[in-house]
């Protein structure tokens, strides 16, 4: 191992995210019986991480705690009774909420092995956004080829994954965004239609769809935006909420439930990870890994920061107008933008 300290990002008190996340150091842990030691390479900063730092997430750690719900690295040591042949393999963390540190001791069921050919920056973002997109699109197993799916927050990590997966699976996407400069990049990424998230954009979207039914709407915003995509659904359509970026409640007209028979659901990928059979989880991630290797699933990176600059990293992750995900770069000697 190339360093004898374990750099960690810890939280002692919830609060403003850049203030709540603090760099600290601890000894490098040793794997016990049946355990593996993983050296983290990259870890993304997700909206859920910001909510944890604020103390506003669905599940919160007991403080003080190391945080971070996603990350990837390389197995560097195997404890007694663990399989030594996996040393050197690339993995991402599963079922861990302490990923923002150099070294993580994990049991094999807390890791997913991914092809070593996958860029470690892509590997560190496989767990949450692509899996969320996959589950959203697969909620309705009856979606025929060519079906339309409408979504807001289309430039988010999940939104871009929805576009990529839908394109690979033969579905079409109608995508709402908040800024005009996002339209062309999403069209270049494979989106079928992109419009601004307002009433004029909805009219433009409906004209492009041309009266074909929309069976699935994916909401990460809430408020008027959620209602907008809900109103575009055909009778019996499904509306799934997986985020609340706009911090506005979901408003459901009675007529949508009574006369249109819409199905209104929520999705939390953490619940799926906690309850799904292991072979199902591995199957989903194997397919997502194939899409990454085929070039059909890309998640852009806006910036990288070493753990010593976590305050700046969290500030950037909370800003609008980013070009992609913000990553913490735990590689030895990493610098901003490295």
Explain what the structure shows.
The chain has 338 residues and is of the alpha/beta class. The protein has helices at 17-20, 47-54, 120-123, 129-138, 157-169, 183-188, 199-209, 223-231, 254-258, 269-275, 278-293, 310-318; strands at residues 5-11, 22-27, 36-44, 65-66, 72-78, 90-93, 103-106, 111-114, 148-151, 172-177, 193-196, 214-219, 238-241, 263-266, 301-305, 325-329. The strands form three sheets. Strands 3, 5, 6, 7, 8, 15 and 16 form a seven-stranded mixed sheet that branches. Helix 4 packs across helix 5 (157-169). The chain starts with a strand and ends in a 9-residue tail after the last strand.
Fold-level CATH name of the largest domain? Quinone Oxidoreductase, Chain A, domain 1
Q: Between the first and last Cα atoms, what is the distance in angstroms?
A: 21 Å
Overall mean confidence score, pLDDT: 94
Low-confidence stretches: none
Strand content: 15-25%
Structural class designation: alpha/beta
Main CATH class of the largest domain: Alpha Beta
The CATH architecture designation of the largest domain is Alpha-Beta Complex
Overall form: globular
Number of domains: 2
Classify the helix fraction into a percent range. 25-40%
What's the Cα radius of gyration? 20 Å
Assembly of the depicted chains: single chain
From N to C, what is the helix and strand string? EHEEHEEEEEHHEHEHEHEHEHEHHEHE
The named CATH superfamily of the largest domain: Medium-chain alcohol dehydrogenases, catalytic domain
| Largest sheet features | 7 strands, mixed
The counted number of beta strands is 16
The number of helical segments is 12
């Amino acid at each position: 191992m190339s360093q004898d300290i374990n750099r960690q990002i810890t939280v002692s008190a919830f609060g403003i995210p850049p203030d709540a996340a603090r760099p600290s150091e601890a000894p490098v842990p040793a794997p016990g019986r049946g355990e593996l030691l993983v050296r983290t390479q990259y870890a993304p900063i997700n909206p859920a991480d910001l909510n944890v730092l604020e103390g506003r997430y669905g599940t919160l750690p007991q403080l003080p705690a190391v945080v971070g719900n996603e990350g990837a690295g390389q197995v560097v040591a195997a404890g007694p009774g663990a399989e030594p042949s996996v040393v050197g393999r690339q993995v991402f963390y599963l079922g861990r909420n302490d990923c923002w540190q150099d070294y993580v001791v994990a049991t094999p069921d807390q890791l997913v092995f991914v092809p070593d050919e996958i860029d470690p920056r892509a590997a560190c973002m496989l767990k949450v956004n692509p899996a969320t997109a996959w589950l959203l699109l697969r909620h309705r197993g009856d979606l025929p080829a060519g079906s339309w799916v409408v979504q807001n927050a289309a430039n988010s990590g999940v939104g871009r994954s929805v576009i990529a997966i839908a394109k690979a699976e033969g579905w079409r996407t109608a995508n709402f965004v908040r800024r005009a400069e996002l339209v062309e990049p999403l069209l270049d990424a494979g989106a079928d239609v992109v419009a601004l998230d307002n009433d004029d954009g909805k009219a433009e979207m409906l004209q492009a769809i041309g009266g074909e039914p929309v069976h699935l709407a994916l909401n990460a915003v809430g408020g008027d935006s959620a209602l907008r995509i809900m109103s575009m659904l055909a009778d019996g359509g499904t509306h799934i909420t997986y985020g609340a970026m706009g911090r506005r409640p979901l408003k459901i007209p009675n007529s949508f439930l009574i006369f249109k028979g819409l199905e209104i659901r929520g999705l939390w990928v953490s619940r799926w990870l906690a309850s799904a059979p292991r072979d199902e989880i591995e199957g989903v991630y194997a397919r997502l890994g194939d899409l990454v290797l085929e070039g059909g699933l890309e998640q852009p990176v806006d910036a990288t920061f070493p753990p010593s600059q976590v305050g700046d990293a969290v500030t950037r992750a909370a800003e609008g107008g980013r070009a992609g995900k913000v990553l913490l770069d735990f590689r030895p000697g990493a610098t901003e933008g490295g």
